[in-house]
Amino acid sequence: GLDVASVVAGMLVKGVISSAVTLDQVRKEFGVAVAFLVEGTARIGQLSSRSQLDTQTEDYRKMILALARDIRVVLIHLALSLQQLRAMVANKEPPDSPLVVRTAAEVLGIDAPIAHRLGVYWLKNQLEDLAFWLREPDTYLDLLDRLKKRRKGGEDVVRKVVSIIENRLEEYDIKGWVSGREKHPYSVWCKLQRKGSTLDDLHDLIAYRIVVENKVDCYRALGMIHGELVPIPGRFKDYIALPKSNGYQSLHTACIGPFGNRIEIQIRTEEMHQMAEGGVAAHWYYKSGGLGVGKGVGATGYAWLQKLLKVHQNADDPEQFLENVKIDLFPDEIYLFTPQGKIITLPRNATPVDFAYAVHSEVGDQCQGCKINGRIMPLRTPLHTGDTVEILTGKHPHPNRNWLQFVVSGKAKYCISRWIKERERDQLVTMGRDMLEREVRKVGHGLALTDKGLQRGVDALGLPNVEELLFQIGVARLSAVAVLHRMFPDEAGRGSRVAGTQKGAGSERKGHADKGLVLSGLLTDMAVHAARCCGPVPGDAIIGIVTTGRGITIHTHDCPTLQTFAGEPERWIENLTWPAARGTQYLARLRVMAASARKVLALTAEVVAEAKANVLEARFRDRNREPCELLLEVEVRDGDHLNQVRKGIAALPGVIHVERIKG
């Protein structure tokens, strides 16, 4: 149940698309609110002719969600799609007709995923099943018949499993209800296609749901299930502590059932169940009091709408609530058209220069102007969703350093920086030569910078040529002192400054840090530091970043901070390994999710102590919240030691999940 304006708009939109009535007429007869909804829904209907559906369904979905600023526009569009499918199925449209092929493709590629993203799962399932029926009627009806026959044979098993779970809930004094529901036909067909198997090979067609009174009972029920049945590793998901972006909350697990077959189980509260079934539509229904649930579905029950849709959660009137709901599921992206109708996705505040590089790096390099929606505009003009952008190029233009002040996309920044740095390479090579010559003069002993000496350095370091050697010095990836040591190895025995600098350097493939860090694969004597953001430890896959004034900073290979340096490849040092140093401790951070704060801290400290590690800091993010989140800083010897600590904590009673914090 949507509001009256939505129902009226749904009845009028086809007339506007077909030009039978105009928006002005709608506005005059039915008001501004209805006209707004009709216009938004009509715009979505008109997009189909502009985009390349087969290759750009994800961008097209996002374009719809970005253009439809009122959630009702999207819901009306989905309702009209469902109505169209039902009519086409009833009329037995030929499955190979162009209309059927296109409609089914749009529904499966666009409309159903949007319904899924909004959390309206019953609508998603109906859209998928009807599109499947329309496109493959014989396959659909045959599968439906086989599912019906299988259902008759398996109903007794489902009843027994439900009864067993209900009895266990009663034993544990957990109030709730249990159901078993068969997966819908399109979902089953997709699984058959994906696995290349037959219906008899699928043993997880029934999803069991346990609906309890509160969040604590969800975790109690999970503990009961895992205690009574054998859980399947890797199949547990906690969407209560970490909800999906559309607000979906539930505990998911898979176990070996009481009769030896694999079963999937979802555990949630009644409120979570209604939201899972109805999504944003159920949220409005709760607001109207239609379910008699009352409070509890406001700011906390659907926080994603506050964050992503800018919802006015405190509206008492459901019509006011719907009027205020603004959808922006992708706040950091905009969706633009090329003149040919292709969709380009860019970050918010992107400019025509970002657009040019998104089309092709050569288009960006040769960009000299642009047209936005047919008008010539400055290259620094911010673009908006729905703009059509045409890039004007020339034969000899080149990137401008000033572009770096307003471009926002990583590709544009990288390409512009690369072009500038390639042009500046000669300057950096000269700078590297000057730095090397200064070190030669400091050392003395009659040393001179000769071609023969430079080639010795090239050979010792495994570089392709002298120019690359000087360039590496110029950009600070190699130390002039370290290069000099390899150019004149005989000086090491004369007590020269070159030898003194490298004292105790070990093998040629070792580098020392002023903090005791020793890395394998490093060709320089620069200081090495462990990044605080990700806290790497020996045994981790690592990346080195050359940092001005600090030498080399080591990050884990998946540290989010590395994205900051995506446009500066010359600062990256890869293929490094970090062996543990005896007697050295390293800092690492862990996040522990537990059902309750009671005893978890004491038990965790005990486990860490037994593993011969140290707890430097331990704090709860919110001790009263359930499940609770405990943040730990520990000292460990290396990655294996850290894993030992993590596994020990994960095995504690009441602990749901343990993960390492990076970034």
What would a concise description of this structure say?
With 663 residues, the chain is an alpha+beta fold.
Explain this structure.
By secondary structure, the protein is of the alpha+beta class. It has five domains: 132 residues, Hypothetical protein af1432, CATH 1.10.3210; 181 residues, Beta Polymerase, domain 2, CATH 3.30.460.10; 91 residues, Ubiquitin-like (UB roll) (Roll), CATH 3.10.20.30; 152 residues, no CATH class; 75 residues, ACT domain (Alpha-Beta Plaits, 2-Layer Sandwich), CATH 3.30.70. 45% of the residues lie in helices and 17% in strands. The chain is built from 23 helices and 21 strands. The strands form six sheets. Strands 1, 2, 3, 4, 5 and 6 form a six-stranded mixed sheet that branches. Strands 14-16-15-17 form a four-stranded mixed sheet, with no helix packed on it. Strand 5 and strand 6 form a beta hairpin. The two termini are 44 Å apart.
